[in-house]
Amino acid sequence: MEVIYGDKKWSFNTELVVEDLLRKIGLWRDPVLVMADGRILDKKDKIHENAKVLIVNAANGG
Question: The pTM is what?
Answer without folding.
Answer: 0.90
